[in-house]
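Hey,

Quick one before I head out. I ran the complex with 1-deoxynojirimycin overnight. Inputs first:
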Amino acid sequence: MKFGYFDDKKREYVISTPQTPYPWINYLGNGAFFSIISNTSGGYSFYRDARLRRITRYRYNNIPLDSNGKYFYIRDEQTLWSPSWKPAKTELDKYECRHGLGYSTFLGEKNLCRAQVTCFVPDEANAEIQLLTLENLSQKTKKLKIHSFVEWCLWNALEDNTNFQRNFSTGQVEIEGSTLYHKTEFRERRNHYAFYHVNTPIKGYDTDREKFLGLYNGIEAPDAVMNGTAYNTEAHGWSPIASHFIEVDLKPGEKKQLVFVLGYVELPDKDKFFGNQIINKTPAKEIISRYDTADKALASLQLVVNKWEKLLGGYQTSTPDEKFNRMVNIWNQYQCVVTYYFSRSASYFESGIGRGMGFRDSNQDLLGFMHIMPQLAKQRIIDIASTQFEDGGAYHQYQPLTKRGNSDVGGNFNDDPLWLIAAVSAYIRETGDTDILAESVPFDNNENNKASLFEHLKRSFDHVINNLGPHKLPLIGRADWNDCLNLNCFSNNPDESFQITENKSGGAAESVFIAGMFIKYGREYAEVCNLMKNPGEAKRAVRYVEEMVASVDQHGWDGEWFLRAYDYFGEKVGSHTCEESKIFIEPQGFCIMAGIGLDDGRATKTLESVNKYLACDHGIVLNYPAFTKYYIQYGEISSYPQGYKENAGVFSHNNPWVIIAETLVGNGDRAYDYFSRISPAHTEDKSELRKMEPYVFAQMIAGKEAYKPGEAKNSWLTGAAAWTFVAASQYILGVRPGFYGLEVDPCIPKQWKEISVTRKYRNAVYEIKIMNGSGKGKGVKEMIVDGAKVTGNVLPVFSDGKTHKVEVAI
Ligand code: BGC
Ligand code: NOJ
């Protein structure tokens, strides 16, 4: 069952009913001001950091679902309705929500009146613009009463949710004309305020929530709205809101447009006030003046549309599968940008208060983002590396606003350091810019303790060597990629965190997964050393990599697949000898990506085991069989009921590792098949079961042993975005940035006769046509560039700003 459809031309997903199986959301933002917006106009806005600078209030896990948003009420005689259906929830004659790239529109019709709201965050201002278009489709004059509504958050979202004894006394506002200002705590240490404006004179306003709603009313039928009026309230404490009250008369056929601006302003301390405790409104007025007509708003929206067209233009494909095309060309890239900005901080499953930017997460997010905005990727790499410890270890998370490591969680997730190598290697392969390695970067944000980025990579590499266990495999620390495999934790106290508790000293558990990572990224590190003309260091790295290969051969192979780990006691994890969870996905994907077993049949054998034990209709589960009870020696993984999350859920993030592995053994049919099992576009008609948006990957889809297999959760902020894009663009389509040029090595389904890829790379455009004449789907036979045959399968770096035609035969 579907609840909408893709409009590929406009790059939109069109939702045709407000009652989707779960709120289906979109992200609006310019890198500083962000809004999360659902298909019924739920959600919230924040500036840079969803925890420290929350602008509007949202109520997570509330009833009804998706509580609070930025809303409009329209009163047309006795009928009260909302263009986005909520909050009035009056049945509409027509409803349509279009989530586009960087904007969302809501179209509602009721009693021959049409209202369309277009929301976006312009590039040039810290604001969300809402363009409300009202049209009278009837033969009679309409006298509409319009109320807008936003509820302010008192900035720190954690405090706002918890510290009521203070909060209820701090709220402050100012009102001037059609602009309602929120200035809580501005009188003391804050140098920022927010405002909500409309470009027309208003009949009234409210800023006091209880008065606007009526103390015992909900948001569906506020008192002011029901009475067709406004109380002109000025909030003092409690819960400040901003609501405009406007009357609009429309003659038959007439159309009117209103522009609302929700803005955020920061001021230097010396310019904060304009008179006694009166906020300096000059910067707000400047923003307002840019959008004081519908035409100006539309012109700014067009810039957003143009920007996205350009951003996505770096990689475009045409294959026989339109669903695959729309994922690669539009939605997967879009999700990569969103995960770049938000890491795991703010979604409908991440409260914006919890995790901030993950060290491993943000590095991996860059893998799918590098080609889109390499300059931002570079800055992110520096920010992440600046939180690294001197010994190469890393804070597991950092806060986006302060960019400081989060000491509540600390470090010791022993895969973390290696992801920095992955990101830097991808950056250099994309841009060719090795100067980044010379950048001087602090340890633990200490400006007095800096080293080159190259030195940071060396410390990452050495962190593994310096932390080897009894089998000469990497010590796992608190956890590796799988945050829930806590082999040194031993917690029997529900009040402890699995992630940061270690109840036994010694921590000797080892990870075969990190070993695979070390081999893959250790080789890339060695390549980087060569680029740096440091063959001595490259040799040293290769020697350690070879030793690790030997350790995996000796202690990491279980006979039909790779082992997952050794636990604290030196017992095997993920072995046929285990009672439960005999096989795990992560080392299978990563060891093969590292090249292990490609030459001796172990890779294909492993992938057969994956297919046999882990693959199901909804994707590839993480482990099998699921843990059916709690194992103190394994930790959080066994805390989840079977089939969910890390306990045998389909954890989308690691599926692309297997997809990539399948392409390495030349099985394009299976690579594509696995892709389509988790791809939102390919599973659109299962929307009722999946519940999540059919245009973005979800972190987790309940696995075959779950109560409800196929039900997805945690959409949007997942490493699945970057990794599926890498798998699809670089391994299935096979157009992959290398250190010395663009490699072409497709592995496509046998039936695909011809595909094309347009790729911008190091200041040139490559128009690549790939003919699968042999029907094998893999193995480049011949490559012609601008009419001339080239040897090998690496496209030269032209850097000439021109377009080059490439023909590839396989
Ligand atoms: C989740 C993991 C997540 C971790 C973060 C766990 O409960 O299952 O996916 O990485 O929390 O702390
Ligand atoms: C989600 C976390 O964000 C990520 O860092 C981790 O690798 C996976 N969960 C698996 O536990």
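The first strand starts at residue 4 and ends at 7.

Talk tomorrow,
K.
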